[in-house]
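Hi there, hope your week has been kind to you so far. Please have a think about how the structure follows from the sequence. I've dropped the whole record in just underneath, so have a look:

_____
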Amino acid sequence: MRIVKIYNNNAVETKDTDCREIIVVGCGLAFKKRVGDKIDDSKIQKIFVLSEPGVNMKFREFLSYIPLDYLIMGNEIIGYIQEKLHIEQSTLLYLGLVDHIYGAVKRYQSGIEVKNVMLWDIRRFYSEEYEIGCHLLVIVEKHAGVRLSDDEAGFFAFHIAEARMNENTLDMQRIMDIMVELSNIIKYHFQVEFNQESVYYYRFVTHLKFFAQRLVNEKLYEQDENDELLDTIRKKYVIAIGTVLKLSPPFPRV
């Protein structure tokens, strides 16, 4: 591979054997190099395939200010997320998390603290992502030498959940608002406290997530008037059906 464009001493643009545009990252990869020079394969630490026009532009801008240490940290972070959630590699998730971490560390070093007003809800409704976010605090501390707050773990979780559900940030907020409203209606109607460690609560929240996602995306199921299961539920779970009818008021505008 030969250098097509140099971004800094550690990042260059080139093309692979399939003529795809790629970004190659490595310590000192472009030091004393010029366009057209051959890339030293032994120095390559990460390769990014540029396949989405919108992402490509953002990634090129990203390389102009993010230090190599954070790019390497991002490798470990994405690897951990993929291992835990078995999701495909996402350049957008990589960019979003590394960019956020870089900004969070800068704020920490400047004595600026940002509170995550959604932290409690994120812990409730995105517990799996939040747990991963907490481990990312450990990775950040190892690489950057600072221990960020649990608020940041919540922000990390939000990025991960957004990538898993393939939603934009505004949609994610709408989804969470719907989940909070629905769970509150059920909680106060039955006068119960949810056991957030219960497998039943986990199933309940999972159903809420996907229902809220369908609602925001306007992809609701068509009702089948001949649905025997629904008829059985109506007869057997009268109180529950009454609660469901209360879930019909207007939700946050979608």
